[in-house]
Amino acid sequence: MSQMNRRRALQLLAALGTTGLVAGCGSDTEEDTAQPGSPIKIGLIVPSSGPNKAVGEDLTRGFQLFLSLNDQQLGGHPTTLITAEEGDSAKTGQAAVDRLIKEGALALTGVVDPTVLAGIRDTVEQARVPLVSSNGSPVSLASVVYIWRTAYVLNEPGQAIGQYLRQTLKDPSSRIAIIAPENPSSRDVIDGFRRSYEGGGRVLAAPIFTPDDPNPGKSAYTDAIKTALDARPDAVFCNYTGTAAVQFIKELYDKGYRGKLYAPGFLTEGIVLGEMDDGESGKQRARVLEYGIETALNYSPDLNNTANRVFASAYRKTYNASPTTYAMASYDAAQVLDKAIRLVGASPTPQQVNLALGKIGQVDSPRGAWQFNQPRTPQQTWYLRRVQLDGRMLANVVINELTTLG
Length: 406
What we know:
Rossmann fold; 2 domains; eight-stranded mixed beta sheet; disordered N terminus
């Protein structure tokens, strides 16, 4: 809600039945009545097709929502959001960056695929145009000057859940099976998990990797799950998203696993919970609730803070859907650009905006307050979420705070 237009903020808060918050929205000052600055363009890089399309839509929605709540302005400048196709490779990502820069983008945002993000690193750095990426970032992306991240580094969700399981499974000999698709993102997640769980006599078995297929067949994970369950694990840790997550969870229960399932929060983010409310006489849903799925993530729609009440309510009203961590991170990407551009003033340049991003301080976010650390990623709270019923629907419900990372 930072720098939100006073009139729009009052309308939202009134709709929420919230009182006593007017002071936080500013007052009728010269800033409220000042004329807007010169128009600017922001480039959004997202996929329009393929397995990452849904996440790309969430990134688009989150950024557009911030603009709609702020009279289509960032930092007092009328803002046009121009979109370029991310594709699925470094080559397509680089083409998107080149096109947006040629069209005069002051800054860039988006990027769903961590591999694409790593692939466009040199292009962005050489262009000297800031990119505020709003999805998971690979560990290898270090020592950057013009790339900022509002989501997380991919080893962090594994680290958060690893710390939790180290405290929860008191017996050092507890066996945890690790199953994940064979890709660089999974390796980052698993490395974070191992580093925070192992030690003091605790040792994890080698991960079991499956083909990296976003649209797996009905028995895609049978062999991997059988291998894992033959070792009689006390818990299972996995790293799947979207359609693959739905299929993995179904097969895991079909093959007889009756313990808890642990994962980064994107296991149950987006479309997954809706698809687990299957037509199988409620069988899948009943198993999820009985055996338990717990995840670690930096956001949940039920967080109780003012910024999230405004964001989540506006998101549901606008899109008739519950916000995801992807939408929240993109909303925050718009928010940090708003702060940085406002610091620069009347005639912002990409280089000035980049410098200003390092000076914006704490961000009042739907996830809770956070700030950029030295590597240009968020220092933020991680939450333990459990899949439970919210009314008649499956939902991710925050149980407690896990840790602060970054």
